[in-house]
Amino acid sequence: MGGSSRRSPEAADFEAMHSSPEFQELRSKFRAFVFPMTIAFLLWYFLYVLLAVYATDFMGTKVFGNITWGLIIGLAQFVTTFLITFLYIRFANRVIDPRAAAIRHELEGEVA
User: Fold this and answer.
1) For the whole model, what pTM was predicted?
2) Beta bridge mates, 68
3) Which of 13, 20, 22, 85 is close enough to 9 for a disulfide, judged by CB 3.0 to 4.6 Å?
């Protein structure tokens, strides 16, 4: 009905694409963002856990009112999670998605 259809790639097409420079670049860009971000977040998280276990006096220190460093750092974990999500979405939209779309178009193409 006027819509375009795509061809169905075969297993050999996927294998060839997997070793192509375009796919390797996509994978490299993805890993260059995800691995350092994951390591940074895990270090930040484990720092919080270690402070909670071994620095109870510090974590219990009141900053203002009944707000302690433990509460502030704990809430910062949520803020960090949302920030990482925002950064990843922005990165994926700018870097990953265009490359993935180009690879998909190369694999499936347009069939008239």
Assistant:
1) 0.80
2) 62
3) 13
